[in-house]
Each structure stands twice: as C-alpha cells, then as structure tokens.
Design goal:
It is built from 19 helices and nine strands. By secondary structure, the chain is α/β, with parallel strands linked by helices. The protein has two domains: 9-223, Rossmann fold, CATH 3.40.50.700; 225-354, Cytochrome-c3 Hydrogenase, Chain A, domain 2 (Irregular). β5 and β6 form a beta hairpin. α2 packs across α3, α3 crosses α10 (195-208) and α4 (65-71) packs across α10 (195-208). The longest helix has 15 residues, at 324-338. It binds iron/sulfur cluster (2 copies). One iron/sulfur cluster (SF4) binds at residues 228-229, 232, 234-235, 238, 257-259, 263, 265-266, 285, 291.
C-alpha cells in the first residue's frame, strides 16, 4: 500500500503502466528466480497486496556503484514502482534529509521496527580504529545495529560481501557477515551487483515472506548456481578449440572464445549471461571482453591477474558452489583440461558431476602451454577461509519454492 492509500495496480495505472507490462515483469521475475512460469500470477498477486515494508540502505566504504546499478534497474517502469513498494527510510544518495535528521530516521526505524525491516548494506565496513564515523558513530557500530536488528539483510556488491578491494587497506574493510556474524544475510556479489537479481530477491521476499535458497556463500542459488562457462554463447568456440589469440585479431572479430585472453568463466558462477546488463542489452563477454569473475569470492585476489589464463592446477574453481556437483565440476574440468578435452568433458552437468570419463572433444590448444601471463602460484586460490555456515544443506535449485504462509515485513 502506498502512502496515498493506492494499491500497486492503482499506482501502475496512474503511471501509465499497463497490467500486461506488470504481469510480463512478474514473468521475468519468476524466470530470474528459476520458478515455474505459473508463479508469475502468484508474484503479481503478492505484489498487488503487499503491505509496504521498510528498507534501510546504508553505505560505508564504497563507490556507490551498487546504488547506481539499482537506480538504473532494468524494466524501469515496473521495477521502479516495485521498489517504491518498499519504504526507503534511509538511503543517503536519494533521501531528502541529511545530517542529524537523516540519522534520526535510521535510528528510529531500527528501534521501532526491530526484526521487521530489510537492511541493505553497500560497501565494506571499515573496522580499523578511527575510520568512517557517521554522526559520531563508527561504521561497525551502525552496521551491527542496523543489520543485527533487521529481518534480513542484503549485502550488495563485492565489498559488502567479503570486504572487496579495500579489505587489505588501512581501513581494514570487512564484509557484513564478518562484522555481524550470525545475521540473516544474503550476499549479492558482483562489482557491482546486478540489480535484476537484487530486485528478484526483494520480489521473492515480498511474495513468499522469506529469502530464496542460498549457497555456501549465502548467495542466491538462482543467480549464483551455474558456471558462466555453461551459459556462454561463445562456448561452442571453446568446445571447437577456436580461441581469441590477441585483442583485435580475426578470432576476436569473429567472436571466438576468450579463454586464452584470461576469461574466468570456467571458474565463476553467476547468471550474468542470462540477466545481462543495461536492461538485458548485452554482457561483457558478448561485448568482447573476458569475464574477470567479479561475482566470485574475494575476486580481486582469487581471479587476478584479470588477463592471466586460468591454470589447470589447484585453485581452479575457487568460485564453484559448495554443492558436491560444483566441486565435481572442478575435478572433472581440471582432469579434462589436463587431457586437452575440456569442452566435451563438461558437456552436461550430470556427466560432469558423475562421469569424468566423458568423451573428449576437438583438441583445444593446451591450457597449460605457458602463456606469459598465466595465473600461477598466487591465484586463483582458495577463497580466504571458511565460508559462513548456512544452517545445513541448501534446498535444491529449481525445486518447489518455499511455503507462502510467512508474513512479509510490514
Ligand atoms: S572461456 Fe569465457 S568466453 Fe570462453 S566459453 Fe567460457 S565463459 Fe565463454
Ligand atoms: S562478465 Fe564476469 S566479470 Fe563481467 S560483469 Fe559478468 S560476472 Fe562480472
């Protein structure tokens, strides 16, 4: 319900957004969430009747790229309005208030709506002494207060997830789950996060009253459950052993595989090739640049040098999910690379997971043929320690959605 008393359908009509467009948006959300198409109707019904939850968006050590990403959300005519169904009580980039008035709004919401609001954290949380105080309070203090009292928290972008680029700097930036261990946190990695996924998580919460199924890093499985390599339109070239050898060469012009240019797609999971960017226009690999694995754990360390070819040795697959399947993929892929039969060996997920003797395809150039910029000893490596516990096995992707009886936050 909007402050004016309007329902979402009334609000849409006033903004000139047709019912058809709205239902189409709900279909896109169902598809993004990997739900059956029939859930389009349920999502539409839920969004039409949802009570307006409060959202508190706090930024700490960040570049505001994640705010920019969501403020330029695709499907703008509907997504904007869905985002309006949330009462954005605090977002320093877009709120009218400032200073003590703004801080008072955040503090009051935390106090009055304990356990009922959604928190979004952008940027790393400086934990070093004296860095980043807001209204006289340290970032750590604010984060613990806002996150610790939220119904759920979205950590958007690489820095909020695990400290990102700034974690090794003097501010000792940390991720949300490190500063507030045990909090109900959904990590939306990426640099920046893809707003299509963030909107989908919010839609899931508004529809089902709970967050979607998560992986070992507390990332939504619908977005981070599959290797980029398996979704890439250049995959046929990989399987055929046709690679870009130099920027601007004939293979590059023809759209060949970017593996030899340092593409991290075989080791990174994300739905980037499907949800894409700029309203679904394209994504970096389609545009001709290698994936640098920006949605991977501590990707600045584990996926660099960004133009170094992935090694076929240990460390390959730092971003695979916790699932046995994902780990099996790494094993199968590494073995297959050693045998120069990568493409065919990972032809199907089931085969990859259970049958590393899958037939080898046409022989690509040996991945270990010592390119000068090969990622070697230092990276990729393990993701820097144990991931947070997630409370047991995550539900299978693509399974039944959670029960719908939960009350959305008011
Ligand atoms: S290596 Fe990169 S460009 Fe090549 S198929 Fe895999 S994801 Fe696509
Ligand atoms: S292509 Fe890779 S590095 Fe680029 S945005 Fe997508 S996931 Fe991130």
């Amino acid at each position: 319900m909007f402050p004016s008393g309007q329902t979402l359908p009334e609000r849409l009509e006033e903004r000139g957004v047709s019912r058809r467009t709205f239902v189409s948006f709900c279909g896109v959300m169902a598809a993004t969430l990997a739900l059956p198409a029939a859930y389009r109707t349920k999502i539409a019904e839920a969004l039409s009747s949802v009570t307006r939850p409060v959202l508190i968006w706090r930024q700490f050590q960040d570049c505001a790229g994640n705010s920019e990403s969501i403020l330029r959300s695709p499907h703008p005519e509907v997504a904007e309005i869905v985002l309006e169904t949330l009462a954005w009580n605090y977002h320093e980039l877009i709120m009218a208030g400032s200073g003590e008035q703004a801080e008072a709004m955040s503090t009051q919401a935390v106090r009055d709506l304990k356990g009922k609001y959604i928190a979004v954290i952008e940027g790393a949380i400086p934990s070093g002494d004296g860095y980043c105080t807001i209204g006289g309070r340290s970032a750590v203090d604010i984060a613990r207060d806002v996150v610790g009292n939220a119904a759920a928290t979205l950590a958007v972008g690489a820095c909020a997830w695990d400290g990102g680029l700034v974690q090794h700097g003097p501010t000792e930036g940390q991720g949300v789950q490190d500063v507030v261990p045990g909090a109900n946190v959904v990590n939306l990695g990426g640099c920046p996060h893809n707003s299509a996924n963030t909107v989908a998580v919010l839609v899931h919460y508004l529809t089902f009253g709970q967050m979607p199924a998560l992986d070992q890093y507390n990332r939504p499985l619908f977005a981070y459950g599959d290797l980029i390599h398996d979704q890439c339109e250049r995959r046929a070239y990989y399987d055929a052993g046709l690679f870009v050898e130099a920027w601007g060469d004939e293979g590059h012009r023809k759209g060949y595989c970017l593996y030899k240019m340092g593409c991290k797609g075989p080791a990174a999971t994300y739905n980037c090739p499907n949800v894409r960017w700029n309203g679904g226009t394209s994504w970096p690999v389609e545009a001709g640049h290698n994936c640098i694995g920006c949605a991977s754990p501590e990707f600045w360390s584990t996926m660099s040098p960004f133009y170094g070819r992935l090694p076929n040795v240990e460390g390959f697959g730092a971003d695979t999910t916790a699932e046995t399947l994902g780990l099996a993929v790494v094993g199968a892929t590494t073995v297959a690379m050693a045998a120069h039969g990568v493409g065919k060996a990972i032809h199907s997920r089931t085969v990859r997971a259970h049958d590393s003797s899958a037939p080898a395809g046409p022989e690509p150039p040996p991945p270990g043929s010592a390119p000068t910029d090969t990622v070697t000893d230092s990276a990729p490596t393990a993701s820097g320690g144990e991931p947070p516990a997630t409370g047991g096995e995550p539900p299978a992707t693509g399974g039944e959605p959670p029960a719908t009886g939960g009350e959305p936050a008011p």
